[in-house]
Design a protein that fits this description.
The protein is mainly α. It folds into 3 domains: about 100 residues, MutS, connector domain (Nucleotidyltransferase, domain 5); about 50 residues, no CATH class; about 80 residues. About 50% of the residues lie in helices and about 5% in strands. It has 10 helices and 3 strands. Strands 1-3-2 form a 3-stranded mixed β-sheet. β2 and β3 form a beta hairpin. It is globular. The mean pLDDT is about 85.
Length: about 250
Amino acid sequence: PLTPSLSPSDGERVAKPGEGSVTSRSNFGWVVSGYDDWTFAPETAVFTVREHFKVASLDGFGLKDRTAAVGAAGGALHYLTQNLRRDVKHLTRISFYQRSDFLALDYTTLRHLEILEPQHHDAPRNASLYGALNRTVTPMGARLLRQWLSQPLAKVEPIRQRQDAVQTFIENSFGLDAFRQQLAKVRDLERTLGRLSSGSGNARDLVALRMALEQIPELKQILDSMGRASPRAESLVDDVPTAPEDA
C-alpha cells in the first residue's frame, strides 16, 4: 500500500488510477485525485516516460521489469503535463524508490509515537521527537531530518555510515560550529533550484544561488581540517562538490 511510504510532510496532491472526477482529502492532509486509468497502463506509461527523457530504454533508470513503478511515473508525468498543464522540462532524472531500505511507519504510528508532531495541539513544539532533535540551520536540513525520522533506515551498513558521519562531528565540535555558521548563510536551496529550473525564479533566487555556491570553498576547507584530525571526515569531503570558478 502507498500510505506507509508517505508522511504528512510530503506533497499536497496524490494522483491515483480511477475516475478523473474523484477528489478527496485524506487524513494525512493530501488531496487525492483520481485520474484516467489508461495513463498508468504499462504500454502508455513506458511511452510517456521514454518520450519525456528521450531514451530508448528505461533500464538505465533501474526500472527494468518494474511495471508498477513505470506506471506510476508515466501516470504522474501525464497528470502534470496534460491535466495541470505544467512544464516539466526541468525533470531530467528519475530513480527507483526501494521501500525495503526503510522501515515503513504509517500516519497512526508517527502520531502515536509523537515522532514528527505532538499529539496535543497545546503541547510545545519540542514535545515531539523531531522537535527535540531539530537543531538544523537550513530549511533543507529540517526537511531531511523529518524524512529520516519518518522513514528510518532498515539496513545495517547505511546506519553505520550515518553514525560514523555523526561521530565525526561529535569529535570535532569546533569544526561543527564553523560548519553550522557557514550553512546558516545558505537559503532554501532546494526551493530556489526548483523555481529556477521550472522557469519561475527571479533575481532573488539567483542571488540566493550565488550565496550558496560561495559557501562551498569554506565548507570544504572546514571538512579538510576535520579530515586531518579524523579519518572519518575524508569521505565527507568527497561528498562536497567543487564550486564553479565563476560563481
